[in-house]
Design brief:
heterodimer, A: alpha+beta, Glutaredoxin, B: alpha/beta, Rossmann fold, 4 domains, 5-stranded mixed beta sheet, 13 strands
Amino acid sequence: MDREDAIKTFEPKQHNILYILHELQDKNPQHYVSKEDIEAVADYLGIPYTYVHGVATFYTMFSLTPRGRHIIRLCDSPPCHLMGSASTLEHIKAKLGIDVGQTTEDGAFTLELASCLGVCGVAPAIMINEEMFGKLTPERLDAILEERRNAI
Amino acid sequence: MNTVRSHILIGMDAGTIMAGARAVQAELVQEIRKQGLSGEVAVLETGSLGMTGMGVVLVVYPEGLYYGNVTKEDVAELVEEQLLKGRLVKRLLLTQAPKRFIIKRERTGLMKEQPRVVLRNCGLIDPESIEEYIAEGGYEAASKAITKMTPDEVIAEVKNSTLAGRGGAAFPTGMKWEFAARAPGAEKFIICNADEGEPGTFKDRLILEGDPHKLLEGMILAGYAVGATQGFIYIRGEYALSIERTEKAIADARSFGILGSNIFDKAFAFDITVMKGAGAYVCGEETALIESIEGRRGHPRNKPPYPVVAGLWGKPTVVNNVETLANIADIVKNGANWFRHYGTTKCAGTKVYTILGHVATPGLIETEMGTTLRDIIFEYGGGISGGKQFKGALVGGAAGAFLGPDMLDVQMDFVNLKEYAAALGSGAILVMNEDTSMVDMLKSVLHFFKHESCGHCVPCRLGTTQLVEIIDRVAAGNGTQNDIDQLLKTAGVMKDTSFCPLGQSLYMPISSCLKYFRDEIVGG
């Protein structure tokens, strides 16, 4: 089975837990860590379910609920805030009709907030999955979102 | 036989890749071939050329001309004009290409050079080529130390250099190494803290993306000095390119026999593993980071015992910042006296800064310790953008200090900044113009901390929530004098009683903001 194979590529040591969770989440088409994933990791590492759950909920990059194909992470740290991230956020919310933490009905987008993405030179910035976008204007945002919505 | 007469270096970091650098590079190669220049012009990748927010940036050597905001569509013209006919493409030329980009050999009258130690190879060599790093004198320090020096001599050199930690706490690096070396125990570890999460800070990312071998060499030297055989680099999960380049550098170093066993044919073994974070600001705190590597929630530990005595898996552990470790190779190679020529008498060396916000030329620079804020903003940063006036700067990210105009001429180093010294480490200089609302900025800072508080201790968990309630009220125009007093009081209690530096550090942005901009805050 896929899940077991993915887990077995790592040594059964507790310090691999973040790597395993990253791997399982990346492999999941809905970009999240499922209950079954947590059970499997707990079994493999020989630690309690609650422990793995505790680790997974501590780190913001892991989600325990299903997410859209494209995860928008909007930076709202002070440098982006200074350059207008608040209006970027409002624009995305209005355009997609979702609030922070929600997923669009067609399953295309999930909107999240992120702390500094480290590309402050082009603030305000967002990350969609692994890709960064900066110097955002309403027009540019619309173009990016349209292009993404149609991408798989 | 063709002789390469011109080199194009294209800056390849997360920022330029976002702007389409890979497509421009592919187009360049194709266009050069099309115009029959393949043997004469070489296109090479390098790390950050120092500027941010200027799209795809490349530099043409031997002229040393910088072009910015280059798109795929510009490539044909650029190749024909610049490379075939030798004419400038003025609309893309960065005439402001300021002193920050000028390394020694390209010095011109108008452009003062930067004293580059940490960033010497950044924007010059291909970060994915170990050969180029070696060609620039790389791994000479490791070779010298391992074959000719004792571990104690390496520690002595680092101690004499007076290098202080560049992560923020400014603890003397040599002393930290000595503690770990003297600590009992057969197994010891070196950890590089690359969990760069301080808002506005991305110097470590650009070091990792621009010259990863420099960090590896620093860690090998640390391992040799301390007696450790294993190193870990804990990199933020968001830094995909940093992780990729660092892992490649490690693999290359292994294949060259620079990592592994019997390094330089001596009985010294050392290896390095990359650990990928998962989004937690608090993991930048060294004991929380250690917890995270061990596979736990990133909660900070009680200190003492300090990591140098009982760190990773309870063993003696040195935790150093990326910039700190990137200084080590040059110190060992050139000696402590050479290093102390940089900076001020009380604070030696250089400092890497990121300049951002309302400045004309945001970017990455390295200057000597003791450079004034005025020089950083107005000389390197090109002044305030749009002809506006300077109002203030948030130095050091969210856990930093708001500095007003009367701090512009203070020499910035760990000693002169005194109560704000911790802000210097991150090197983030967020510049704000006259139109900026300080209440709004303080609000953004406090919201950041509320989100990032790990919830482990009561003062930080409840304190950040209370502070957000107060600042939201003040920002809405409903604040009272009592609210302002309460901000300081709550932050003061958090400073005294929080478990780790996260909760303790809020006092600095709040107190400094009130010191310089109190009237505005009180006015809502």
